[in-house]
Amino acid sequence: MEPRCPYTHTLDTLGTDLHGEAAHLRTHGPAARVELPGRVPAWSVTRADVARSLLADPRLAKNARRHWPDWIEGRVGPDWPLASWVAVESMFTSDGADHHRLRTLTAPSFGPRRVEALRPRVRAIVTALLDGLRATAPGETVDLHTRLSYPLPTTLICDLFGVPEEQRPEVRRVVDGVLATDATPEHAKGVLDDLFAAMARLAATKRAEPGDDMTSELLATRDAEGSRLSEHELISTLILMIGAGSETAVNLIDHAVALLLSHPRQLALIRSGGATWRDAVEETLRLEAPVMHLPLYFAAEDIDLGESVVIRAGEPVIFDFGAPGRDPGLHPDRPEEFDLTRPDKTHLAFGHGRHYCLGAALGTMEAEEALSALFDAFPGAELAVRRDELLPQESFIVNALRSLPVRLVPAAG
């Protein structure tokens, strides 16, 4: 049977209704034809079973330099709004032996023991941030996004990679810049240039003054005789680790706080011992995954998904990692309700298969520590607006909030 001519949907670059858009795309088959910024065609995958299967399929690749004709032949270039996601050379954009080699460089630093060893540092950062919040008047509205959710992960990842204090504002700016999906070609090219420049400056600083940090460790590997880590791979790895090491946790903390404050009975379950902070984190990941459409995969050869849908070799594929947790095919029982007692909280918020997020355990631990400390310090906290009035960040890549206005009431004494 010839593949059907698929419906084509233009993704909303502002991300105004991420979940509604995902539900709509799910109705159009195992993969739906979409148009990315710059009128770039791609396939969007929203169904849980299809996503799991494809993410484990060796016919699906990450390397645009080998598998995307439009990139190889220059029809899509560095001024494309999503170029930052394919122009790098890290484990995020590699396959096979290259992926294994690059992932091996950083994987040990995010193993269970190393993550647990970071817990005291996470608690210290949380304590300092909450001490700052205690200085506010009882009942005063504060933006928890800027006062807690954002500074916790960004401070920790900058500490881990030894980013000097004077370089941190620029590093945060360029990392945040890659999330914009409505950028002009000029702005997109500027973001890409600034991103590489900021990480090159960090590398130069650490070459001159190495320390006990992950950037210095990567440089030692890069500069060792016989090293197989190129300079471009080094800079790309810094971009990946510093960016991915913060954004996911920021969004997770924001959404978990918003969900718990808008569902007081669920929060009461934790306080009574009927549920745990881990339950809150996992249910938040299921319902409000921090990352939605993650660029970009490519078919290394034709992939027949059934239902007359064939992804041809060289065509881009974009996964909606926020969709499986709400997929009725995976969660037939009230998939859009926040329920900490739900026995099955399966999600794909951190991906699946060989490109599963290295920082999943770290992000989960950061969120647990932030939530438990926040609600211990401010048990009477409440949202200053309705949850449906919280403004999303203008991006279809991340499921993020612009701000999180909360009224804080400290614990007695």
UniProtKB/TrEMBL annotation:
Domain of life of the native organism: Bacteria
Signal sequence extent: none
PROSITE patterns: CYTOCHROME_P450 (PS00086)
CDD domains (UniProt xref): CYP107-like
Pfam family, one: p450
Alphabetical UniProt keywords: Heme, Iron, Metal-binding, Monooxygenase, Oxidoreductase
Cross-referenced InterPro entries: Cyt_P450 (IPR001128), Cyt_P450_B (IPR002397), Cyt_P450_CS (IPR017972), Cyt_P450_sf (IPR036396)
Similarity comment: family membership: Belongs to the cytochrome P450 family.
Protein name in the entry: Cytochrome P450
Organism of derivation: Kitasatospora putterlickiae
